[in-house]
Amino acid sequence: KTTLTLGSDGLVPTSPPSWLEIRVDAGAVEGGLAPLVLARRRALDRLGARETVGDRAMWRVRHGLRRRLMGEERRLPPAAALLEVLGRLALASSTTVALVIDHADEAEPDTQAWLIRALHGMTSQPVALVLGARPDSPWTRRAVDLLDDLPGAGNAVTLPDAVSETAEPAATEPTEPSAT
């Protein structure tokens, strides 16, 4: 599921306790693709606690054979390395894994470009992508337009500032059935 959360502060609300959340504040880190590198490090920390020795061995065998047979070099760009680790974490975890990026509209241009591409491509990943952004940003408008064009029901634009206005009314107490 891909979600873009719009709000005046650009922050994503706390995820449900059942989710395994990898959260990065894109506005607080500097450097090319730094939010993705930081997210990968945090995912690797979580993976080390969840991945079994057998899982790690199977991954090494599969990728080692590919490298030996195909002659591929194992150096992945930061974005591909992040997706790989998140996929492994999703396989090793029994809960929903979510990549949460706060202040996505404040990220440097390379990260913003990757996030726009990820909005389109993450629909096939076993990881939820949740982005927080301010509604008045030009980047946010591009992201909203892209989400509107994506097929499938898994995409949403959430406005946390307006949640109280659209909340369901409180349930009324049940009335006693009338005796007829």
Describe the structure concisely.
With 180 residues, the protein is of the alpha/beta class.
What does this structure look like?
It is a single chain. The chain is an alpha/beta fold. It contains six helices and five strands. Strands 2-3-4-1-5 form a five-stranded parallel beta sheet. Helix 4 links the parallel strand 3 and strand 4. The chain is globular and about 50 Å long. The C terminus is likely disordered.
Descriptors for this entry?
single chain, 180 residues, alpha/beta
Strand-helix topology:
Blueprint: E1 2-6, E2 20-25, H1 34-50, H2 53-70, H3 78-92, E3 97-102, H4 109-121, E4 127-133, H5 138-149, E5 155-158, H6 163-166
Parallel strand pairs: 1-4, 1-5, 2-3, 3-4
Helix pairs in contact: 1-3, 4-5
Radius of gyration: 20 Å
Give me the secondary-structure category: alpha/beta
Give the strand order of the largest sheet, numbering strands 1, 2, ... along the chain.
Answer: 2-3-4-1-5
How large is the share of residues in beta strands?
Answer: 15-25%
